């Protein structure tokens, strides 16, 4: 594992230990008829179709390799995850016979601190990872920009702060109602509190977070059995 491991990497590795990872992989086999899973797969296929030639791709927080078979037009596929147990399960992912990537490499590492050589990939994607298990913040954006080739795409999902899965406390309700009327500094402070420092991210936070490094190509919302998600595809400037 390259670089030090952040608290987020440790939490993921602890959560997805061997028993949990095995159950997670067993659940993968039940996803064929789950609408949200099929929608995420279709989203990834559509993104792959935006490239005119074969690409090198990075699955950021690949887990059990749940989305490997959804990819098309991929030459080299790298799966990065903080959990060795999840990577062990990714050696026999769902729909393995449908995976079309020419090569797959599984790498144990923390997405916030791991180092790939600059310009290693054309596509970086993360489903169910950012603003969920790893904060969507400047570190992730800088890593993606550094690892992507010019014109490369960064595709990711986040948990939207309006998701029903997030407990509606009184302070959250009041804070949400105040955001549209708060002046600049107070609005930024409120938004930081409501998104728990990048553990949730809505459209405005995503655009702000990508800053001058990326141009947003598409942004949409999608409900899953667990959360309301933002789905973003951004292109490196």
Q: Secondary-structure blueprint of this entry?
A:
Elements: H1 7-15, H2 18-28, H3 35-48, E1 55-60, E2 74-81, H4 84-90, E3 103-108, E4 121-126, H5 138-147, E5 148-159, H6 170-178, H7 184-194, H8 203-210, E6 214-223, E7 228-236
Parallel strand pairs: 1-2, 1-4, 2-3, 4-5
Antiparallel strand pairs: 5-7, 6-7
Helix pairs in contact: 2-4, 6-7
CATH topology: Rossmann fold
Question: How many independent structural domains?
Answer: 1
CATH homologous superfamily placement:
Vaccinia Virus protein VP39
Instruction: State the end-to-end CA separation.
Output: 29 Å
Mean pLDDT: 91
Strand order of the largest sheet: 3-2-1-4-5-7-6
**Uncertain stretches:** none
Q: What portion of the residues fall into strands of 2 or more residues? A: 15-25%
**Dominant shape:** globular
Q: If you compute it from the alpha carbons, what radius of gyration comes out, rounded to the nearest whole angstrom?
A: 17 Å
What do these coordinates show?
There is one protein chain. This protein is an alpha/beta fold. Helices cover 33% and strands 24% of the residues. The protein has one domain: Vaccinia Virus protein VP39 (Rossmann fold), CATH 3.40.50.150. It has a 7-stranded mixed beta sheet with strand order 3-2-1-4-5-7-6, with helices on both faces. Helix 2 packs parallel to helix 4 and helix 6 (170-178) runs antiparallel to helix 7. The radius of gyration is 17 Å and the shape is globular.
């Amino acid at each position: 594992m390259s670089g030090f491991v952040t608290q987020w990497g440790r939490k993921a590795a602890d959560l997805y230990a061997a028993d949990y990872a095995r159950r997670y992989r067993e659940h993968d086999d039940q996803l064929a008829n789950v609408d949200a899973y099929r929608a995420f797969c279709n989203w990834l296929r559509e993104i792959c179709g935006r490239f005119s030639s074969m690409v090198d791709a990075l699955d950021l927080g690949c887990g059990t390799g749940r989305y490997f078979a959804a990819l098309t037009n991929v030459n080299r596929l790298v799966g990065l995850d903080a959990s060795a147990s999840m990577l062990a399960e990714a050696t026999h992912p769902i729909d393995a016979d449908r995976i079309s990537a020419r090569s797959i490499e599984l790498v144990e590492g923390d997405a916030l601190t791991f180092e790939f050589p600059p310009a290693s990939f054309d596509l970086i994607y993360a489903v169910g990872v950012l603003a969920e298990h790893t904060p969507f913040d400047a570190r992730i954006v800088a890593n993606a920009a550094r690892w992507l080739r010019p014109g490369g795409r960064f595709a990711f999902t986040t948990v939207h702060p309006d998701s029903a899965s997030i407990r509606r406390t009184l302070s959250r309700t009041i804070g949400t109602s105040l955001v549209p009327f708060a002046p600049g500094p107070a609005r930024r402070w409120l938004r930081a509190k409501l998104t728990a420092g990048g553990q949730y991210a809505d459209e405005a936070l995503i655009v702000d977070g990508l800053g001058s490094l990326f141009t947003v190509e598409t942004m949409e919302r999608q409900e899953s059995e667990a959360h309301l998600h933002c789905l973003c595809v951004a292109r490196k400037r």
